[in-house]
Protein: PAS domain-containing protein
Amino acid sequence: MRVIEQKTEALRQNEIKFRTLFEYANEAIFILHNGVIVDCNYCTELLFDLSYQDIIGCSPEALSPVYQPNGQTSKPKARDIRKKLSLGKPCVFEWRYLREKREFDAEVSLGLYLGENEFY
Structure:
């Protein structure tokens, strides 16, 4: 029983560390599941000038203008990025987003988490 308690406490401490890093990062961070934002930090709320509740459940494309700077529409470009990511390689790219109908550019670093300590 003592081993289980130690492992449970270690997991709890790791969760506290993750949450602290996630919430206090000076970068906007959001977590996607099946193309939908399921979690974000406070910096994301500030960047988009939206509440947590307004961000959760959105796709990144919903926070984007119809067209990206290269003239390609956001939805197909996002599909292309997800396809590359599914090959197991992290992606860094420029993306245009919307905040109160004003567009702004951001550098995005995107990695894939598969579970059980597997990040790409």
